[in-house]
Amino acid sequence: MSRIQLGTYADRNGVLHGESVDLREIADRFGTPTYVYSAGAIREAIAGYRKGLGTVPHRICYSVKANPCQAILRIMAREGVGADLTSVGEMKAALHAGIPAEQMVFSGVGKRRDEIEAGIEAGILMFNLESPAELECVDEIAQRLGKRAGIAVRINPNINPQTHPKISTGLSKNKFGIPTDQAIDLYRRAQHMPGVEIRGIACHIGSSLIDSGPLLEACTLMLGLRKRLIDDGIPIPYLDLGGGLGIQYHKEVPDSPQRYGERLRERLGDFDGTLILEPGRSLVGNAGVLLSTVLYRKVNGERTFVILDAGMNDLIRPAMYGAEHEILPLRADEGPTEVVDVVGPICETSDTFVSQGELPRLEPGDRVAILSAGAYGMAMASQYNGRPRPAEVLIEGNRFRLVRKRESIEDLWRLDIEEE
């Protein structure tokens, strides 16, 4: 079985490295399961978008929900990247990391009144509105605060993103966005509201798109709608095309950030506004791996199970989406391969990382890396089955450091209130 190379994670003399760090050192020092992130891979992805877009005026707003680790948010802040938010918690985390409020957009269908108030008080760039009721709410709160809130209307373009149905957001049957004709009426109403300032138009059709064609189709539709609004006397300085670009998990070959940026630049033509992109997965997905240790081998009839100490509570994507992540031993073995199921310790049949996959023979005590785990890994981790969430480590060149401690057993009940 060939040892794949994925960005800054590569085989060096038979040992898997992240940048210039032997991943076994991290597993030895901090134990497993542990998430590891490459700062270099994150910066490389950011640079790819910027190089591809070239001279197009743009703002990259990192989708915080992909991975809200403070160390990653601080990288974004230092690189001049803004934030795409789905909650006041994400806003506070981004502010704490040093991302300016004026570089933030607030998305999501269910913004609470306290979240809207917090966003207005902080001075975020704009709210991406999802309903007429939300427009009324933002206007009322902003007037009460004596402020004007920046807004965009999120369009539902009814474009099939050709991705997993659980992360498809651009079809008319999805809960996200507003149909085009209704959105135009909403903009006309917003023009006369004293508490809001129209700043943009937005869409986001889905996540993990391997074919960027639907994203380009959405861009064309949004350009036409923006022109229609401008012709009606409604200025639209920002065009927010959301995120959605996929990454390599298994055998996929998506556009790179640079190539997608180049294709967008061609599609935008003589666009005279500022483009906003909200990448999440494509900035951090391939930058992360989950380190784990083999606990046992088990044979049930004709199937061989390799049981890891990492489970679906640590990385839920395979259980939730049927996602396939490459798994590599930290130390290469030139011996024969075998067909196995790689599973975790959780009391759920869905706690399976690989079903009937061909891997090098793994023995108890061997360490492995589950690749492409930087997005929607730790962000979706839980304490299910009474399992504390993993530690997180950041690699920069030949150095690495702990950026989030492993939770303790006591953390499982730390917030519980004892009987009096």
Task: Describe this entry's structure for a reader.
Strand 9, helix 7 and strand 10 form a beta-alpha-beta unit. The chain folds into two domains: 9-38 and 286-405, Lyase, Ornithine Decarboxylase, Chain A, domain 1, CATH 2.40.37; 40-283, TIM Barrel (Alpha-Beta Barrel). The protein is built from eleven helices and 20 strands. Helix 2 packs parallel to helix 9 (257-268). The radius of gyration is 23 Å and the shape is globular. It has helices at 23-30, 39-53, 70-78, 88-97, 113-122, 132-145, 180-190, 213-231, 257-268, 281-284, 317-321, and strands at 9-12, 15-18, 21-22, 34-38, 58-63, 82-85, 104-106, 126-129, 149-155, 196-203, 238-240, 274-277, 288-300, 303-308, 327-329, 337-343, 352-360, 367-370, 391-396, 399-404. The chain has 420 residues and is an alpha/beta fold. Mean pLDDT is 92; it is low at 162-175. It is 28% helix and 26% strand. The N and C termini lie far apart (60 Å). The strands form three sheets. Strands 4, 13, 14, 15, 16, 17, 18, 19 and 20 form a nine-stranded mixed β-sheet that branches.
